[in-house]
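Limitations

Structures in this collection are predictions, not experimental determinations, and the ligand pose is part of the prediction. Treat each record accordingly. The example that follows, with adenosine-5'-diphosphate as the small molecule, is included so readers can see exactly what is and is not provided: the inputs are given verbatim, and the output is the predicted complex.
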Amino acid sequence: MSPRVLLFTGKGGVGKTTAAAATATLAASRGLKTLIVSTDTAHSLADALAVEPGEVAPGLHLHQVDTQKTLERHWGELQEYARGVLIELGLDEITSEEITVLPGAEEVIALLELREHAREGRWDVIVVDCAPTAETLRLLALPEALDWHVSRLMPVGRKLVRLVSPFVRSVAHVSAPGEDVMNAGERFHRGLMEVRELLTGENASVRLVLTPESVVLAEARRTLTSLNLYGYRVDAVIANRVFPAGGADEWRAQWVAAQSRLLAEAEQSFAPLPIHVVPYLPAEPVGKDALAAVGADLYGSSDPFAAPAVEPPLRLSADELALALPGADRDDVDLARKGDELIITAGPYRRILALPVALARRKISGAVLRDGVLRVAFSSGSESETR
Ligand SMILES: Nc1ncnc2c1ncn2[C@@H]1O[C@H](COP(=O)(O)OP(=O)(O)O)[C@@H](O)[C@H]1O
Ligand SMILES: [Mg+2]
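Predicted complex:
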């Protein structure tokens, strides 16, 4: 049984670490074996919980990623992989010092560890405190983006990659080859694909943290669209730092009014997702007790650890590809086809999607974005370049 994986993301400073730590504390208090990890190298989880990493409360384990150590463990795989990519790009080999400055490298390493934790079978719940919005997105999209590179760069890899691709696997029911037949680069790549499968799988979901401010809300909307684009299920929104109503002074009354306007807007933007409200507390919720109090109030009567109730954003049938893109504007969405790949753009984000064999042979007969869902219809005619 794979553990329930909960990812927390949102703009910097909105309360991701607080919400993640509060949720993990709640899980442990309900007797669930809980691991909390961060892909953010700032290590603010330990500060928020006011503890050292390890078993921080009964059933609650805090893991801090040691990037350098993990990097050394995966170095062989990484190096071989990076070499292939770089040679293809016309660059020379890179050194281990240089690889850590590659965008997303540290987070990728954290995610590779996450996969190992998930495999251990020790945890009921794994809570992930993600880096701020943009990085998280890039990071989450990385395995698939890399898949795209690898399938071009590695002739042998191409076949293997196709075999482990979740789409192909679900359509054709093939099993992945054993680790021994793969080289280090392929193993690394497969690790990334497994992370992606874990994070887009039926036991994983993302919770979007925001504060009721217009700038934050605008970014959260874009994040929701792009998370869907990349195939992640978002199952709740957490509105943090909401001023409790009451009090007579003008300053407070104005904030309360402005926030309630924005919360109403958020409800419209994110429906049917539930919005869980956390009040602006009189002090920073630091330490296990304060976080436990936040966690106890956070989800009301709903069960935050049940399997996600939302459908996966991407659904394929014999003649249609449907991708939920809530909040996407028609003008921002673009579609292009290149052989057996579909390139979907939503604003600044792009997903390169390998079509399953059944659809790859067919021609696109039409595409519409309606009610937040992009529907691409395939006709029985054979493949051709379509736009
Ligand atoms: N509801 C709240 N009321 C008061 N302070 C809060 C609340 N939520 C978070 N904080 C404080 O705000 C700061 C930023 O929160 P944090 O969870 O670290 O944000 P993020 O991880 O998104 O950067 C921390 O000092 C935290 O203790
Ligand atoms: Mg944080």
